[in-house]
Amino acid sequence: MNNKAITCKDLTKRFGDFFAVNHISFEVEQGEIFGFLGANGAGKTTAMRMLCGLSYPTSGEATVAGFNVFGQQEEIKKNIGYMSQKFSLYESLTVRENIRFYGGVYGLSDKQLKEKGDELIEKLGMQQEAKMMVGSLPLGWKQKLAFSVAIIHQPRIVFLDEPTGGVDPVTRRQFWDLIYDAAERGITVFVTTHYMDEAEYCNRISIMVDGRIDALDTPANLRRQFGANSMNEVFYALARSAKRSAD
Question: Which of 22, 68, 145, 225 stands the most exposed, by the fewest C-beta atoms within 10 Å?
């Protein structure tokens, strides 16, 4: 089995003459926090769907947790966690019921569900809310719960699609503490975000423009390469360059 968490070589998704993902190549190390950035329509979600085993590539090569995206999609799904941009838990179930339901989907035994459920609730400080309907919780609490449930089965990789959208800065920082903790436990974190300050929290980031990866390195190296003081400046420099090329 490949010791890289993710490998991609010329991965492509084409719809007719339109390249949603245009020959992207990169690798992600196990335990790395890898940021996947780009404007709306850049191809981030399409690429993530292929890596999660939800969509077949048109061409190229890729492995996720050592499994091939062409023929081993079900194995990929067993070895990853996923948290979508839209809230993914059941609001009409309690906190504990959601934990039991998703833990069961991930194949945990009754004993594991009890142990991990108690551990998760204590870690999140939600002992008083364990029997509350999820729909009644603040958005930030929902997001932290959704992330914790996505990794309850200790997957090799967790995919996070805009996980902190709409939450306040303090809650975003708390959410990233959970991400750091997961990475320290060896879980690879593949995260899309449009918050440029969050790009600074990643070990490395890639920036997609029109289906291509136009930049990939550590935040510090990218700032140095573009003579920028922030990732916002790097992002806008790439956007201006892409616009000039299109013109």
Answer: 225
